[in-house]
Every structure is written in C-alpha cells, then in structure tokens.
Design a protein that fits this description.
The complex is a heterodimer of chains A (110) and B (110). Chain A has 110 residues and is an all-beta fold. Chain A contains no helices and eleven strands. In chain A, strands 2, 4, 5, 6, 9, 10 and 11 form a seven-stranded mixed sheet that branches. Chain A has a four-stranded antiparallel sheet with strand order 1-3-8-7, with no helix packed on it. In chain A, strand 5 and strand 6 form a beta hairpin. Chain A starts with a strand and ends with a strand. In chain B, strands 2, 4, 5, 9, 10 and 11 form a six-stranded mixed sheet that branches. In chain B, strands 1-3-8-7-6 form a five-stranded antiparallel sheet, with no helix packed on it. Classes of the chains: A mainly beta (110), B mainly beta (110).
Chain lengths: 110, 110
C-alpha cells in the first residue's frame, strides 16, 4: 500500500496563476482532508470531505476550491494564487480517529 | 482563534532527559486527543492518543497525561533520545473536526 500520495512535491507559481494539487489514498478511507502548515501556526484545515460526493469548509477556505473526484482522490485548486498561499500543503485521510498524512507539497507563490 | 494552544514553541533537552510539551483546549465537545510526530520533509504521523475517560496513557517512553477539568493535556517523553528530535503537534478532535496546536520543535542533544 502506498498510503496517501501527493503530487507535485514542489511547485513555484507566479501571483495570479492557477494550479491543482493532487491527493490519492489507497486505504479505502471515507474522509479526506487538506491542511496547510505555516511556521508557528501548526496545521490549519482548508477543506475536508467526509465521504465521496461531499465537501465542507474548514478554518481557512478562502482562495481554495476542492473536488472529491471519487473515494480515492481529493484535489485542491488555487484559482488565482497569492503570496499569502505560500505554504506546505498536506493531504490526509481518516480511519477511526487516526489521520494518515501524505508527504506534503511545498508551494511558493512569487 | 486557536482552539488548541501548545507550549513551548521549541524545547532543547539533553539525551536521557524528560521532554514535556503542554496543550490546552477550549471546546469541551472534543473527545479524542492525539499527538503527532513530524520529521523534516515528512508528513505528521500519529504517535499516541487518549480519550477523556482516562487520565493517563503510556506507550513505551511516551506518556499522555490528561486533566479534563483543566482542559489540559501533556506529552512526556522519558529518556529522550536524539532520534526523538522532531516537531510534535497536539490535537483535539470530535468526529471529522480535528484542530491542531502550533507545534513544538524538540531537539535532543547527544
């Protein structure tokens, strides 16, 4: 099992560009999450999906959209990137209270 | 408003010493309190967790102490080792809602 995979690992964008971060899990988990991690701020929830076909906003959803494509895949889209979105992004899936995290995507917006 | 407050931000301990990290939460509806360990360049991974019906849980050198009335919990790492050097996050959750503390960077000096 690969667990939770994320692509890309690194990305540099210019202000105003758009991109989609991909996440997939092969553990058959229902719930999936997107977090951003910033120094001194911990992990902040952007969006989550409790099950296929549903998505909900977290603490910091502004500037992001998500798609739960199927049970395995949960993507995060930045429509018009801003420097404030420079961060490390983690995807996770949930099984009986334990969250399993992917390796992260380090995004820099210039 | 941060629902889970974690301290200290950073901690330096000698090999063989005890590392103590503290967390406090606001929402009494939270019913699951995990600690995650994160090494540089990796996603967080579950270390140990506790539910509020017990006051202490021990797994090897790692112990969680839980004080429900004070809405506080702490992680104790006994006989700290250089390999324990990592960032530690406390969290509090209920159902799909998990809130993380800001993290503690632990350095164990040989």
């Amino acid at each position: 099992n690969a667990g939770v995979t994320q692509t890309p690992k690194f990305q540099v964008l210019k202000t105003g560009q758009s991109m989609t971060l991909q996440c997939a899990q092969d553990m058959n988990h229902n719930s999936m999450y997107w977090y951003r991690q910033d120094p001194g701020m911990g992990l902040r929830l952007i969006y989550y999906s409790a099950s296929e076909g549903t998505t909900d906003k977290g603490e910091v959803p502004n500037g992001y959209n998500v798609s739960r494509l199927n049970k395995r895949e949960f993507s995060l889209r930045l429509e018009s990137a801003a420097p404030s979105q420079t961060s490390v992004y983690f995807c996770a899936s949930l099984d009986r209270n334990e969250q399993f995290f992917g390796p992260g995507t380090r995004l820099t917006v210039l | 408003q941060q629902q889970v407050k974690q301290s200290p931000q950073s901690l330096i301990v000698q090999k063989g010493g005890i590392s103590i990290i503290n967390c406090a939460y606001e929402n009494t509806a939270f019913d699951y309190f995990p600690w995650y360990q994160q090494f540089p360049g990796k996603g967080p991974a579950l270390l140990i967790a506790i539910r509020p019906d017990v006051s202490e849980k021990k797994e090897g050198r790692f112990t969680i102490s839980f004080n429900k009335s004070a809405k506080q919990f702490s992680l104790h790492i006994m006989d700290s080792q250089p390999g324990d050097s990592a960032t530690y996050f406390c969290a509090a959750s209920r159902l799909n809602d998990m809130r993380f503390g800001a993290g503690t960077r632990l350095t164990v000096k040989p």
